[in-house]
Give the backbone structure.
Amino acid sequence: MDVIRIKGGRPLKGRITAGGAKNSVLPIFAACLLTEEECIIRNVPDLSDVRYMGRILEHVGASVVEEGDGVWRIRAQEVRSEAPYELVRKMRASICLLGSLVGRLGEAKVSMPGGCVIGPRPIDLHLKGLRKLSCKVDVEAGYLQVDGSNRRGGGVFLGGRYGSTVTGTANLLMAAVTTPGTTRIECAACEPEIVDLCAVLGKMGAQIEGVGSPTLIVHGIDALRGVDHTVIDDRIETGTYLIAAALTGSDLEVKGAPPSMLGALHDKMEEAGVDLIYREGLWTVHASGPRIPVDLITLPHPGFPTDLQAQMCTLMAVTPGISVLTERIYPNRFMHVSELQRMGADLAIEGASCIVKGVKKLSGAPVMASDLRASAALVLAGLVADGDTWIQRVYHLDRGYQRMDEKLRDVGASVERLPAAEMPKHLLGED
């Protein structure tokens, strides 16, 4: 197991390129099960989650070939209906196989999913949607068993306590594209990753109306064809590096997702005194001036992304004044707070909000990553902390950021990935 050591205080200069969107690739991989023809998926990031999804597809019968340079070929000529616990438990997005297997075979047996520990993320809306398509759904011994042999189109409302469900929308889309009749999905997720999935399904022959809106209308067809598709750039990775530039007061270029995917972040960054310019696929960040504290609330797209809340928390931790960050998607998503406090941040949790009082500086410390986005927040904190920051459990980071340590090092940061055995024993409380 590796650790990351960061020596803080170095400005960043140069260009960072974001990879393909992890949250697009995973459901798109699942959608490849909907056809027996070959699918070519491009701009695929090299991430542990992607490799896990590839293994799951192979288990259910698909041929999965990674060609290099972000190109994968997937062909599912024959498909089995069961996705086992030993694979599915490692990654929540594997629940997307539920919809694709129902869409391809009319049945599915999928283990309840795993993933990050960031609070409850129930799948009741997924199951409600499948039942609205006249599927029989049972939960037994930790498995979801779906019989969709008599499925037909219907009306589905996917609104929940914290808004629409992204993976639930993906599942219903994949189940509905081959379901006889017309399916109307209300309160569908509008995230760019869902738009990207709709683009793939459309190229495969699916008939979907209202793409990008909260109402999706799907006209079922008998079979889908293969596809050649380039995945969108990752808006969360792009946003993370924009925040890194603001945090370090650096002039940095970031190649990645466009403003249409990052409107809420763009607005908050400008409100915080950070100058962002986007031109011809490239962000330019000018962040040498004074920063201003901001309040924000995470909301479904086009609201502020929950996946950037932890990174903004780090930025506000060293911004003079008081900020309030409220989490409306996953109210328990503050696992990074206690670790930032170890580095000297002045943070307090009040219900679903984090009250941030900006401090002059952070201090390097040994910290523990608890989930994917918390890991990124700790890396950002290390970039501006005095002394050395040691981040443990960096396998979380590898789930969503392709070679983050290398990308930051290429623009001037002192970031090093080391075997865990090289971490000083006194930092672990050992003699």
Q: What stands out?
A: Residues 134 and 150 are 7 Å apart (CA to CA). The longest strand covers residues 2-7.
